[in-house]
Structures are given as C-alpha cells and as structure tokens.
Amino acid sequence: MRRTLGIIGGLALGLSLSQFPEYAQQYTQRLGGAVDELRIITTEFEVAAKEAGLTLEQAIDRYSKTGDSFIAARGESMARTFSRYQELSSTLAEVRGATGWERFTRMPEYFDTEIGRRTLSDYQPAVPVTLEGLSYAAAGFAVGYVILSAIVGVLMLPFRRRRVRYVERRP
What we know:
Blueprint: H1 2-18, H2 20-51, H3 56-65, H4 69-97, H5 100-110, H6 113-122, H7 131-156
Helix pairs in contact: 1-7, 2-4, 2-6, 3-4
C-alpha cells in the first residue's frame, strides 16, 4: 500500500510540476504580446513628438500645461504607458535570458499580476515533450513519491506488527 500511494503521489506531483514550463512559455508569449503592443503605442507617440519638433519629455509636459483636465490626464496616462513599456520590456528580456531553473525560482520576481492572472485564466495544460518539461515531471515524481511514501509510513507506524524475538533458553 505504501508503494502504491507513493507512486500515486509521485505521478500527481510529477504531472503538476511538468506543467510549469508550459505555463512559463504561455506567460512569456503573453508578456511578449503586451510589450509588442506597448512598443507600437510608444513609437507612434515618439514619432508624433519628433515631427512636432519636441522631445518625448517636452511632448508629455505639454499635456500637463494645458488647462484641460482631460488632456492633462491623457499626458499622465502616456507617461505611465512609457514606464510600463520599460518595465515589461526589462522583465521580458530577463525571462527570455533565464534558464529553466532560474525561471522557476525567480518567477515571483517576473510575475506581473495582471498578465499572470490572464495567463492562468487562459492556460491550457500540455504534455511535456521538451527536456525541461520531462525533467520537471521526473523531479516531481521523485519528490512526490518520497513525500507521500514517508507520510504513509509515519501514519502506519501505530498499526505495524511488532516482531517478537523468542530467545531460546537452555537448561
């Protein structure tokens, strides 16, 4: 029973961990899409500013100097867009340059809650056929087997039969 439950635990954790590379890949794709869209917006704004003979800072500053609160708010929005573009571009470069283990251990640093939440809501499990996916599956199986086997072993201690040694007495 202990071995069977250990195998079940190993398979469950192995299957779960094997999904991490797929989630990371889907997260990276979504992050890359966000960066691409922000690049289009920021590039268009920079080109328009340059055509008007303004630097980026001057163009954003011009929004805030108008007396119109709507236009001033649009300037603040563009400043946040540029900031988000820089932040997400930096995160994407880090994620793409990381090894499989680094992505696993550093994912909380990369995790943007909005993108991570949307990735999880659209996540599609996949069979791990990459070396990284198979490695996670194998490691998950080993850890799951050991943990569940140990738990079952401890829980079964009160029910184990005691071995009684009979000592032969000589007259």
